[in-house]
């Protein structure tokens, strides 16, 4: 397969549109020109071509994500300042290579495996229930704020020793990093540059307190009490970068996935009614337990479908470590490839009516990780996949069994891509006491460019 070259003039238009709306731009370019594109940078010449490849093809995706020695992860967002905390804090798991990556992946896998994660369920449910009970009813609430509160407390309570005094300030500052991350710096980026040293100090102080107190279920305690792959104490860069990565992965992923799932359910009230009825029958007014949730297949399929449509990280970037071939194209060392994960998740040959929210499609659907890019794939696939699904299932089940959810009339929902993809603008929900009447309102806004909603609520 050869890449379709847009040429310099159309490439310039692509770049300009990408900076304004990357997801729609990538989608429209692939629809018009196919799954493998070549973008020429403005300074590209025939003698010295400067190119970016853009792919939305499962086979090419498999090549890129499985070939971890040939293709390495690079940031899609603006880098920090050289020799500054802002650059050290982005040195996370996706940036580690070779023996170092294997060493730390092996270190962090045990607490994230299925059995330990399932054992966390009672505590997860208790945290989620206490939060929902504290949210006010019958008034508009900022959706991303309450989702973030849920995600932060679950991540800290289950992966960081339940140390809210230290963990919440760290989580809040890492949230600023995620907000600031984009190719073109803005005011949020400037605030992040100023805040990064404070975050680095907070993480390192927290790590120092963990030394001498190993805890096999605490990511930071594991990091602080074990040597690196060469037998040395972990460097400040390693500690800051890995903790920023794990907080971002656990907290920001859940925040965005939960927000999008709730929006989609309000726009599909028949599905939400079915889901609530199945949850009520399985739980029978009892506590949220994994054995009960396992009897609600619609819950898992709802989570999977919401994350298929709105994956937390919808665009990935890889860079060639040496001369290689991708499809039928010769690629030079250092050239980059943008992977349209959101588009791969919408391959119509696997997902009929791919832009529609249809949880029932998962009753007989088992895509490979390369066909469902939510937690990555290959050797650098996110180790917290089971934990992420568990958080989502328990958080969503707790909310829906304790409250009815509606959008305020006149809701307008945008979307913003930094490292992760989240609802944007004044996005609110109203939580009602169960049993009362609710009024579902049609949401407008730019998010509708990315999903096909029913004609009528």
Helix proportion: 40-55%
Distance between the termini: 43 Å
Strand arrangement, largest sheet? 1-2-3-9-6-4
> What is the chain-wise order of helices and strands?
EHHEEHEHHHHEHHHHHHHHEEEEHHEEEE
CATH superfamily: Cytochrome P450
Shape: globular
What structural class do the secondary elements suggest?
Answer: alpha+beta
Mean pLDDT: 90
What would you say the CATH architecture is? Orthogonal Bundle
Proportion of beta-strand residues: 5-15%
- Overall number of structural domains: 1
Rg: 22 Å
* Main β sheet profile: 6 strands, mixed
Number of contiguous helices: 17
Low-pLDDT stretches are: none
Break the fold down into its secondary structure elements and pairings:
Blueprint: E1 4-5, H1 7-20, H2 22-33, E2 36-40, E3 51-55, H3 58-66, E4 71-73, H4 85-88, H5 98-112, H6 114-119, H7 121-134, E5 140-142, H8 143-159, H9 164-180, H10 187-210, H11 219-224, H12 236-266, H13 269-283, H14 290-293, H15 297-309, E6 315-320, E7 324-326, E8 329-331, E9 336-340, H16 341-344, H17 385-402, E10 403-406, E11 414-417, E12 421-424, E13 428-433
Parallel strand pairs: 1-2, 3-9
Antiparallel strand pairs: 2-3, 4-6, 5-13, 6-9, 7-8, 10-13, 11-12
Helix pairs in contact: 1-2, 7-8, 7-17, 8-9, 8-12, 9-10, 9-12, 10-12, 12-15, 12-17, 15-17
Protein name: Cytochrome P450
Organism: Mesorhizobium calcicola
Pfam families: p450
């Amino acid at each position: 397969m050869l890449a379709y070259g847009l040429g310099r003039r159309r490439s310039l238009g692509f770049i300009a549109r990408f900076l304004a709306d990357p997801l729609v731009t990538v989608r429209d370019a692939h629809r018009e020109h196919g799954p493998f594109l070549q973008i020429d940078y403005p300074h590209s010449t025939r003698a010295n071509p400067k190119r970016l490849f853009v792919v939305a093809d499962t086979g090419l995706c498999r090549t890129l994500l499985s070939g971890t020695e040939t293709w390495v992860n690079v940031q899609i967002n603006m880098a920090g300042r050289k020799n500054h905390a802002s650059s050290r804090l982005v040195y996370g798991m996706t940036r580690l290579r070779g023996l170092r990556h294997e060493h730390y992946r092996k270190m962090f896998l045990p607490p994230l495996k299925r059995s330990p994660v399932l054992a966390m369920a009672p505590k997860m449910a208790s945290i989620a229930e206490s939060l929902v009970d504290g949210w006010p009813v019958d008034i508009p609430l900022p959706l991303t704020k309450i989702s973030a509160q849920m995600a932060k407390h679950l991540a800290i309570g289950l992966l960081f020793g339940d140390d809210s005094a230290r963990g919440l300030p760290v989580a809040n500052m890492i949230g600023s990093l995620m907000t600031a991350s984009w190719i073109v710096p803005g005011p949020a980026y400037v605030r992040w540059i100023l805040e990064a040293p404070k975050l680095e100090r907070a993480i390192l102080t927290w790590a120092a307190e963990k030394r001498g107190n190993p805890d096999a279920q605490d990511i930071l305690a594991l990091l602080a009490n074990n040597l690196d792959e060469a037998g040395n104490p972990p460097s400040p860069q390693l500690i800051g970068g890995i903790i920023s990565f794990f907080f971002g992965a656990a907290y920001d992923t859940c925040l965005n996935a939960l927000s999008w799932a709730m929006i989609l359910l309000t726009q599909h009230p028949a599905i939400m009614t079915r889901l609530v009825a199945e949850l009520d029958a399985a739980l029978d007014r009892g506590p949220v337990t994994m054995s009960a949730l396992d009897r609600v297949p619609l819950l898992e399929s709802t989570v999977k479908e919401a994350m298929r449509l709105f994956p937390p990280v919808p665009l990935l970037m890889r860079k060639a470590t040496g001369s290689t071939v991708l499809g039928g194209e010769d690629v030079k060392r250092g050239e980059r490839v943008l992977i349209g994960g959101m588009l791969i998740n919408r391959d119509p040959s696997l997902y009929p009516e791919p832009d529609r929210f249809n949880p029932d499609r998962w009753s007989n659907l088992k895509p490979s990780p390369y066909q469902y890019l939510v937690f990555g794939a290959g050797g650098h696939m996110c180790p917290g996949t089971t934990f992420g699904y568990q958080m989502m299932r328990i958080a969503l089940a707790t909310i829906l069994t304790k409250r009815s959810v509606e959008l305020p009339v006149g809701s307008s929902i945008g979307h913003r891509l930094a490292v992760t993809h989240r609802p944007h603008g004044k996005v609110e929900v109203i939580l009602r006491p169960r049993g009362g009447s609710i009024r579902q309102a049609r949401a407008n806004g730019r998010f509708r460019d990315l999903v096909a909603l029913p004609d009528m609520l």
